[in-house]
Amino acid sequence: MQTPMKIQFAMDTLTTAQALEWAAAAAPHVDILELGTPLIKSEGLAAVTAVKAAHPDKIILADLKTMDAGGLEAEIAFDAGADLVTVLGTADDSTIAGAVETATRHGKGVVVDLIGVEDKALRAQQAVELGAEFVEMHAGLDEQAQEGYSLDGLLTAGRSAGVPFSVAGGVSSTTAGDVKAAGAQIAVAGGALYSAEDIGSAAEELRAAVA
Ligand SMILES: O=C([C@H](O)CO)[C@H](O)[C@H](O)COP(=O)(O)O
Predict the structure, then answer these.
(1) CA angle, 94 as apex, 72 and 141 as ends, to 5°?
(2) Does 3.40.50.300 match the CATH number of domain 6-210?
(3) For ligand 1, atom 3, which residue shows the shortest CA distance?
(4) Residue 42 half-sphere exposure, CB side, CA atoms within 13 Å?
(5) N or C terminus of the chain: which is more exposed, having fewer CB within 10 Å?
(6) pLDDT score at 2
(7) pLDDT in tens, 68-125
(8) Whose CA is nearest to atom 11 of ligand 1?
(9) 43 and 67 Cβ atoms separated by less than 8 Å
(10) CB 137 near ligand 1, within 6 Å
(11) ipTM attached to this prediction
(12) Domain ranges for the chain
């Protein structure tokens, strides 16, 4: 039987209070709660601790986007309560390996974020060889704002990589079916959920779209 696709809620806000409110609304319908990079820069890793304490049953992802000192940055995030941390695919192999070594020691995991990587399929394979749990086929908010942006490039890269992957780049209930069809294990949604009038209903709709 195929493993059901997971949903990751990317909480790109600047306050822990807002993140806790969003997490409570979406929690019944999502598997992974992501503390967005702007939130961690604004509130620090205390935000991770607060969300983990409120949702001990959820996978908590700290979107550190680590570029150097992989072991050190992963260590402080795991100590704060994260289950997964992100390291950039543009980082040196030793940075990814350092974070993986720390994750293994903690019984936790590393996700390699392929934002800004030219050959995402190739780097995805290398990242998984280095021990990443999965990679994120990712187009960031700035790339999404460019004219003509579509998810297609991410889906093609995911299909050809042949390793476990998530897709992040403006995923919504309209596009989630395509993400599933491409073979992704995880659909990441930020704006489509937190900009909705009713976050809980939007998350429920997204879950239905990938069921
Ligand atoms: O990682 C993200 C971005 O770099 C800002 O932190 C987003 O969380 C990710 O792109 C998912 O959000 P949406 O694109 O709004 O779905």
Answers:
(1) 75
(2) no
(3) 140
(4) 15
(5) N
(6) 67
(7) 999 999 999 999 999 999 999 999 999 999 999 999 999 999 999 999 999 999 999 9
(8) 190
(9) no
(10) no
(11) 0.97
(12) 6-210
